[in-house]
Design goal:
The protein is 27% helix and 22% strand. Helix 1 links the parallel strand 1 and strand 2.
Length: 346
């Protein structure tokens, strides 16, 4: 099966607008703030010089990137043809099916050129690379107004790479720069149907589905058929963008010899609140191994104070004494983090 073969989904498209025709895109931050589900924005970054170079050729976009490249080695994933581009685990789940390396940009581009045109090339992939560190200044020539100074831009480069379904905590605007990328998305509530791998050993920091979406084995993963019923799919052309809300699962395929994506992550809560994933890891440590009755009690405590928290849960405590039950601010978060660190060190 080639990378351009349609996956076995219902291919349910999701909402899309044309940036050249939709007046609401003029205020992009306001438009994105109103969205609660994924949305395609066709042609949002059509006017970027980076996109123009990508449309021209691999050599042209490589020359453009070289103008801004800082020279820092890029963290690169290299896999044999046998993995068919799919980044993941080895058969024994003792490691991964690719080798982590470092490459300078010209070496990476040379490897891409060498693989171009092959039916089953080796995998050459550079994941999230902070724009300010590796390509400082490129954002000034390829601007976008997101209305938040906290948005973190990253560049992704590779050939026909397949990244299994995973989620990100921040919201995400993914801009297709070169090549085509197919996104298949699943709502957050599909977790139980995605057969997610280990949370503590992941190919790139986030847990991933173990199902190969291109050829799903429904005998091994029967509940995945339910996920496919609600899957949403789109293919981004150069210049297009996709808004991904926080926590939506997304499977991503590069369809051409060189695929480049520039994305922006931002969160809707202050950074001092920390990552919920850290809370989950601590729950694995302190709660998951408890007897069932104790887990049920702790679930009720979490529901009462966290997931279904209401004013009634703290109104009997004088406001001055509510501590962490009151609004979380930076000072309180710093003090709580210090207390947790002291406890974890014991």
């Amino acid at each position: 099966m080639t990378a351009d073969t349609q996956p076995a989904t219902s291919r349910r498209e999701f909402p899309a607008v044309d940036a050249s025709q939709a007046a609401e895109i003029a205020d992009l931050p306001a438009f994105l703030e109103e969205l609660s589900e994924p949305h395609v924005i066709r042609g949002l970054v059509d006017n970027w010089p980076l996109v123009a170079a990508g449309r021209e050729s691999i050599a042209a976009v490589g020359d453009y990137l070289q103008r801004f490249y800082s020279g820092a080695p890029l963290i690169t994933s290299l896999g044999p043809p046998s993995i068919a581009g799919r980044i993941g685990y080895n058969e024994s789940f003792t490691g991964f099916n690719y080798q982590r390396s470092q490459m300078k940009l010209d070496d990476f581009l040379g490897a891409i050129q060498q693989c171009a045109g092959g039916d089953n090339p080796p995998t050459v992939y550079i994941g999230s690379s902070m724009l300010g560190h590796y390509f400082p200044g490129i954002d000034a020539e390829n601007p976008i107004q997101l209305g938040t100074a906290a948005a973190i831009p990253s560049l992704w480069l590779g050939n026909r790479v397949v990244v299994s379904a995973h989620f990100d905590f921040p919201s995400n605007l993914a801009c297709c720069v070169a090549g085509r990328r197919r996104f298949t998305l699943f709502p957050p509530e599909q977790l139980e149907n995605l057969y997610v791998g280990p949370w503590d050993m992941t190919p790139a920091g986030q847990p991933v589905s173990l199902v190969d979406l291109r050829e799903p084995d429904l005998e091994q993963f029967p509940r995945f058929a339910e996920a496919l019923k609600v899957a949403r799919e789109t293919t981004l052309e150069p210049g297009d963008a996709l808004f991904l809300p926080s926590m939506w699962w997304h499977h991503v395929e590069g369809l051409d010899d060189l695929n480049i994506l520039l994305n922006y992550w931002w969160r809707d809560t202050p950074a001092y609140m920390g990552s919920p994933l850290n809370v989950l890891n601590h729950a694995f440590l302190g709660i998951r191994g408890l007897p069932a009755e104790q887990r049920r009690i702790w679930k009720n405590i979490f529901d009462y104070h966290i997931f279904e928290a209401a004013q009634e849960s703290v109104e009997h405590i004088p406001e001055a004494g509510r501590g962490i039950h009151g609004p979380m601010d930076e000072d309180r978060a710093r003090a709580l983090r210090a207390e947790l660190l002291n406890v974890l060190k014991r």
